[in-house]
Amino acid sequence: FVETKYGVKMYGYLKLDMSYDDSRVTQGNYALYAASEQMNNDDDEFNMTARQSRLGMIFDGPANDRLKTGGRVEVDFYGDGAENKPELMLRRAYADLTWTAYDFRILGGQEWDVFSPVSPMRINYLPQGFAGDLGYRRPQLRAEKGFELGGGKLLTQTAVARTIGGVTGFDPGDTGEDAGMPSFQGRVSYARKLWAKDPFVIGISGEYGEEEYDLDATGRHTDFDTWGGCIDLTLPINGKLSLVGEVYTGTNLNQYLGGLGYGVNAARMRTVDADGGFLAFAYKLNEKWSFNTGWGMDRADEDDLSNGNRSENDSLFVNAYYQVNKAMTLGFEVSEYETDYVNLDEGDATRYQATMMYAF
Hints:
The mean pLDDT is 95. The protein has 360 residues and is an all-beta fold. It has 1 helix and 21 strands.
């Protein structure tokens, strides 16, 4: 029982994931890339977890004809802790103000990035992380403004965000904090209904920030840029079939799930250039069955890497969901990961994953 001064809606789901990999992958409970066969030759693994179970609350009000206020908080269990004693992890927590007559919104808190906002529908926890799908969540102050244009809507979004950096071992440690400035994100998108019920959306987004790497305890340091540019597309083809995709390029994008996890190569004191993208199709057969398939690729510039580093990661997937009723969903997914390394044998893993989810 929840009693609050203003309206609140609870949502979430209880979820079990089971997976078998015919060769070792990182992270285990979910897949990002395959380990080199030179180091882990066909080292199969089985995982089972309930960590993705999610709890959230949407706060609504107070509001009037001009101004609407509210917020959201959302957690899952991918924090620390043993597999049977997982800890909460904050996903989203923000307050927002919307001036409805002006289609203008201000959001403050932790939310998904403005940069690179779309993802494929997958059972895997991070859908195409380090395999072409950039974007994550971080603290930010965001402003959004919509404009009616040509029968559709032009949306502009800007955000000042916390730079999540690495650790150098010198105070204050975090290289994003030490830069003394936030990161900046922006996106312009256009949405319009064409021949389908849902709108076609195309967007262009980017981000820029800095990290400061201390070289010793005296304050000597080197600054490194982080920047990225992305084009995203959502296209409903008909009432059953749709596609979604992104392409990106940039440097030092590991904290956005790009560059195969490499941002700054501290051994060579240079940022890692990267590019990639994904394309996925979704097909809703009927009220019970839906299917998704897609491919993604993340590639880091070998000239910026060291021996043993990952240089390219390709991921292909196909899945099926069965809606038992409005609350219960069963799903099964097969995915393939091929990961190249600098002067090491490639990694190749096939993942079979099943899920059982009760949503409320």
